[in-house]
Amino acid sequence: MTTFLDRAYQARDAAATRALYDDWAASYEAEVGENGYATPGRCAEALKSYADSMTAPVLDFGCGTGLSGLALKLAGFEMIDGVDLSTEMLEGARAKGVYRHLDQIDAGAALPRRDYALCAAIGVIGAGAAPISVLHMLMRALPRDGRLVFSFNDHALQDRSNVAGIAEWTDCGAARLLFRESGPHLPGIGLNSNVYVLEKA
């Protein structure tokens, strides 16, 4: 039987991605949970290591059902806002009770607010999800010394343009790579991820 996880890493356009995640919302947490979804906790701890303040607002971009926001909350961040493409996923996030604001956004749309020195894109960029242009959009929106935590799973790392997107910022000195670590993503299906923290120069 084909699972949503099987379908998640297949290329599609933004409308199809939104539809997939709307359909997946009800069973998403059970499916990733039974496979040991580890990246949210790893990302939250990485961002915590480089955050100047745990009370500063954090943007959880592509927040889904709120597992990433919950991980940020458990790490000690006090003010978390979330945005996502999927209405159904946002309903799950709202039920967590960890977000100050939640907004639905369209692919490629501007952020509803831009006052974030801390941002997270956890499990967001990669095959079947958001393109590397999201990294550039979030980095442009950060103020100087702002920090972005994000992850590339094994599928995302197979696309050289994703790692090249990091180099576009670091090679010219527009950003500093503060943290990079490989570790478990969905160990139940043998999938790993790299977690990164970039600081805008």
Structure keywords:
seven-stranded mixed beta sheet, Rossmann fold, alpha/beta, 201 residues, 40% helix, globular
Structure write-up:
By secondary structure, the protein is of the alpha/beta class. The protein has helices at 4-8, 14-34, 39-50, 67-75, 87-96, 133-141, 154-157, 160-170, and strands at residues 58-61, 80-84, 101-104, 118-121, 147-153, 175-186, 191-200. It has a single domain (4-200), classed as Rossmann fold (3-Layer(aba) Sandwich). The mean pLDDT is 87.
Shape: globular
Number of domains: 1
User: Structural class of the helix and strand makeup?
Assistant: alpha/beta
Strand order in the sheet with the most strands? 3-2-1-4-5-7-6
Q: Report the average pLDDT across residues.
A: 87
Helices and strands, in order, run as HHHEHEHEEHEHHEE
Question: What fraction, in percent, of the residue positions are helical?
Answer: 40-55%
Strand segment count: 7
Strand content: 15-25%
What's the main sheet like?
7 strands, mixed
Extract low-pLDDT stretches.
none
CATH superfamily: Vaccinia Virus protein VP39
- What gyration radius follows from the Cα positions, in whole Å? 15 Å
CATH arch. level architecture: 3-Layer(aba) Sandwich
Instruction: Please identify the top-level CATH class.
Output: Alpha Beta
Under CATH, the topology can be stated as Rossmann fold
